C-alpha cells in the first residue's frame, strides 16, 4: 500500500518524465529548435538535442519546448540550434555541440543573455 | 527522458479501424530503428474526432495525424521520429488548411474539456500517468482536509447536475443519501451507471475507456461523503474495451491502496466491483439497474422509495452517471466557483455530446452549457456533408425529441431543451438532413423502445406497440388524419401512466415530430407521399424519356423489374419493383426519378 508521500513522489517523477501534451502553446513559451535533417544528424545534432532535452527536464525548466526541424539550408554550419523567445528576434546558433548546448541553456534561456560567440557570423 | 511521445487513439472508433495494429507496428518499427529509449508510445482513450480516425498525435510538436494506416507507420517513424520532419500528407486538414495542433482546429476551438480532460491525453492503463495529471489529489484532499458535509456542500455549490439526462442536482442526491437512516447493518452503497443505452451515444464509453481512474476517484469521494464502503459500476458487456480498462484500473488502484481497506493509511475503507449488464435498455433506468445488480431480472420498481433511502439491496444508495463522476475530482481541486463560472444560470459546467448522423465531424465533443446548437453543428461539427440542408437534431435518444432548424440558436441547457420539447438526455446528438423522413425517425425510435420495453407495466408494453402500429400505418400510406389526434392522446396516456422513465419518455420522439413536422405526417396521410423519399411504400421509381437504352439499370435490378431493348426507353414494372433505388444510382443519364 502506498502513502500520500508515495503518491506525491510518483506524481513528481512522472511529471518530470512526461513531455507536455498540452495543445495550447503558451504565450511566454520559448522554443528551442534543433536542425535534425540528415546533414544535422551527420554533423552531430543528436547529442546536442539530447543534451537540451535532458537539461530542460532535469532542471525542471518550464515554458521551454525543445523540438526538431528539418534542414535549414546552411548544412556546413550544422548542428544548428535556433531559439525563439516570444517578442524577440530569433537567434541562430551554429556548430553547436553538447557543451555549447548547456551554455545556451544557462546563459540564454535562463540568463536571458545571447551567447554571441556561437552566433552565425560572416561565415554565412 | 523520452524525446517524443506518440499518442495512438485506442478508443472504440479508432480501435475498429485497426489502431491496435498501428500501435504494434510502431513498436516494431521503433525497435528496428533502435530508438526505443527515445520514444514513449501511449495508447490513449478517444480524442473525439472519430470521423478522421485512426488518430496519432506526436509530441512535443503536437502534430495531429489523421486517418493513419498501418502502412504509414514506417514513414512516420523514419520521417518524424528520426528526422524531425512532419509528414504533411497525413496532417489533419481543417477546411483545406493544414493544421498542426489540435487546439487550432475548428473542432477543438469551441470546446472546453472537463469530463474529457484526460481522454486522448493519458494512457488509461497506467495509473502513474493519471497521477501525473493530478490524479487522486482530490481524494487525498477530501480525506485529509474535508468533512463529508463539506464535500457535499462543495458539490452542491458547484451546481453540478446529473449528466445521465434528468439533471437532478448531484449534491442534493448525496445529501439525501447521507441523511438517510440505514438499517441495523449501517450499509450504504455508491453505484455508477455506465449502462449507456441510447442509440448513437458513446460519451460514457469513451470516458471509461480513456480515463477510468477519474470515475474510481469520484466514486471513492462520493462514498466518503455519504458514508459508504462498497461501490458497484454497472457497465454493459457490449463495451469490452471499457470493461477491460476499468478492470485494469481497479486492479492498479487496489495495488496502490487507493481502493480497499484503510485507503492511504487514512482509515477510510472503500471497495469497488464491476457488474456487467447484458445490454437491456431498461437497465439504464436507476431502479432497474439496481434490481439487475441484485441478480434479479432487470425490471424497474416504483418510486418512492427513492434509491437515496432504499436502493441497492434496500440500502441507501447513491447512483450517478459516468460523466457526472468525471467532473467531481476537478470540482474538488479547482473549487465550486470555477465550475459554476461555466454554463448558464441553472445548468453549470460542460456537457459531452456524441455527434452522429449527417455531420462531417462525427465524434465526441464537450462544450460549456449555453453553447448554441448552431455552434455545435456548424463550427465544431463542420456542418452537413454533401451540401445538404440541416433539418433537425435529435437529442436524448429514444427518450428525447428533435430540435428543428428554427431553434438552432437556443443555448443548450437542461431548461431550454425541455422548453422546446426535447431533453438534454445523456448526450447523444444525431443530426438529420433533408433526406431524413421525420415520421420514419419517430418509427425508428418507437421500434427501439417497443423492443426494449421490459413489459412489466401495461401502458409501456401495449402503448408503445399501439403507437408503433399507427406509425407503420402512416408510413405505408394507409393513415387517416384522425390517427394523429389518436396518437397524441395515446402519447400523453403513456407518459402519465408508465411505471418508469423508459415508458414515460418513450412517446417523446412522436410528440416532438408531431409538433414540428406535422406537415410531413399530413403529406404521408393526405398526399400519400413521403417528402424526403424514405418511406418505400409511398415511393415509385420511373424512367424518363431521356433514357438512352444503355440497359445498365435492367442489368443491375435485383428483381428483374426493368424491361426494354437496347437503345429503347426502358420501363419499370411497378408490381415487381422493391424500390431499392439501385437503378437510379446506376443510371448515368439521370433518366430515372423517384416520385
Biggest β-sheet of chain A: count, sense, barrel?
4 strands, mixed
Could you state the CATH homologous superfamily of chain A?
Glutaredoxin
Instruction: Report the C-alpha radius of gyration of chain A, rounded.
Output: 16 Å
Low-confidence stretches of chain B: none
Computed Rg of chain B: 26 Å
Assembly category: heterodimer
User: Largest interface by residue count?
Assistant: A-B, 36 and 39 residues
Adjacency order of strands in the biggest sheet of chain A: 2-1-3-4
> How many discrete structural domains of chain A?
1
The name of the CATH architecture of chain A is 3-Layer(aba) Sandwich
Q: Total helix count of chain B? A: 24
Description:
Chain A has one domain: Glutaredoxin (3-Layer(aba) Sandwich). Helices cover 38% and strands 15% of the residues of chain A. Chain A is built from four helices and four strands; from the N terminus they run αβααβββα. Chain A has helices at 4-17, 38-43, 45-58, 98-110, and strands at residues 30-35, 64-69, 81-84, 91-93. The longest helix of chain A has 14 residues, at 4-17. The model of chain A has no long low-confidence stretch (mean pLDDT 84). Chain B has 595 residues and is an alpha/beta fold. Chain B contains 24 helices and 19 strands. Chain B has a five-stranded mixed beta sheet. Chain B has a four-stranded mixed beta sheet with strand order 2-1-3-4, with helices on one face. Chain B has a four-stranded parallel beta sheet with strand order 9-8-7-10, with helices on both faces. In chain B, helix 6 (137-145) runs parallel beside helix 10 (212-226) and helix 7 packs antiparallel against helix 8. The radius of gyration of chain B is 26 Å and the shape is globular. The mean pLDDT of chain B is 93. The A-B interface holds A 1-4, 6-7, 10-11, 13-15, 17-21, 23-25, 34, 36-38, 41, 49-50, 53-54, 57-58, 65-70 and B 1-5, 7, 40, 57, 59-62, 83-85, 101-103, 108, 121-122, 128-129, 131-132, 134-137, 140, 144, 256-258, 260, 262, 264-266.
